[in-house]
Amino acid sequence: MKKLLSVSLLLALALSFVPVFSYAQEGLVPCGGETQPPCDACHVFKLINNIERFLLFPSPFNNGVPPVPAVAAIFLLIGGFYLLTAAGSPEKLQKAKTILAATIVGLIIVYGALLLLGAVLSSAGVAQWGDFRDWVKVECDVQFGPPSP
């Protein structure tokens, strides 16, 4: 029973990341293509921003299902299930508390790292703070390297 539940959850998680439609208009970095400008140092920051948007927020990159909150929700459900079915067993109750605490601490670490990354990028002058969907908007016109003659 436990193995069937684990396999079912793993299969459901894997299938949730399969895109229904493939939209290939936009890449992770908007450079280097036939009709796109050549890549420069600014595009590295845009890549970092696109990766964090993919992992943490609903966006066209992840078909509206961000992996980090989805996995956290699954673990919160599992911890809640263990909590409800503990039936007075201290071992199961401790396991439920451990799962719930680890999930919450993990979310705090992930979103705290996002805030730290936003602070670093904004202090470097390549990003500015935005709204909920775009906490950090990378819009860098900063020229890196020596100026061209």
TrEMBL record:
Residues 1-24 form the signal peptide. InterPro entries: T4SS_pilin. Keywords: Membrane, Signal, Transmembrane, Transmembrane helix. The chain crosses the membrane at residues 68-87, 99-121. The keyword Membrane applies. It holds the Pfam family T4SS_pilin. This is Uncharacterized protein.
